[in-house]
Amino acid sequence: MASLLGLFKADLLKTRRTPFLLLHLLAPLIAVSVFLAYYSYSPWSADDKVLAYLQVLGCALPTLIALVCSMAAEQEALAGRFQGMLALPARRTKVYASKLLLLLLYGLGAILLAAVLFGAGFRYVLGQDGPGMAFYWSSAFILSGSTVFLYLLHGFISLRFGRGPSIGMGITGSLIAALLLTGLGEGIWPYVPFAWAARFTSIWAAASSGTPLSPALSQADTGSLLCVAATLLAAALSCLWFQRWEGRSADH
Fold first, then answer.
1. What does the alpha-carbon distance between residue 246 and residue 248 come to, in Å, rounded to a whole number?
2. Which one, 126, 158, 220, 244, has the greatest CB density within 10 A?
3. Number of compact structural domains in the chain
4. φ, ψ of residue 115 in degrees (nearest 5)
5. How far is CA 149 from the centre of its chain?
6. CB-count burial class (<10 Å; 0-12, 13-18, 19+) for 110
7. pLDDT, tens digit, for every residue of 57-66?
């Protein structure tokens, strides 16, 4: 545990002179500002406004996660072609866990900022009725928990194949997430990790507002089981892969 804490502190220091922290601060602030400005004159109901905001967050996360994972990987590539991660084979699992923990905590912080700041602005600045602040805190943790698999996926892709494939898959994932929010997603969304964040928050928003759930939304149990199982499996497989990984070739 002590060595993991030391590795985490070292990874944290690496981000001080990079746009990593700035990205995690600016993205939520921009999203909140744009939506609150639009909602100040939008004729939608309060419940529809909150739901739309959370769905947009859920659809945007695959792209944003791909971007930050690729940034973290490229930082290691430029700083000695991953030797900082590969130099100590006996500690590789802890090195990998430290990097993943950093990404997850930054992501959780950004999502909390996006959700809670929007909730405060929606209620206290716009003066519109809506769910209490506890709803937004819960929404942030649902969004964060349902995207751990994507961090593992894009972490692997960014390290193994580079920035381009990771960002390309992230953009594709966001488009798929938006598509599966429609009727096309009925029956298949629990099996598509890109759709989990947007769908789970939609279910949470509907349940919190007392809206009857459609048959598609009733698949929450299946989606939750698949999300947990896939995340645990991906974590185990990615650790095994990283133990054997020897770095990326120069042409990537």
1. 7
2. 158
3. 1
4. -80, -50
5. 9
6. buried
7. 999 999 999 9
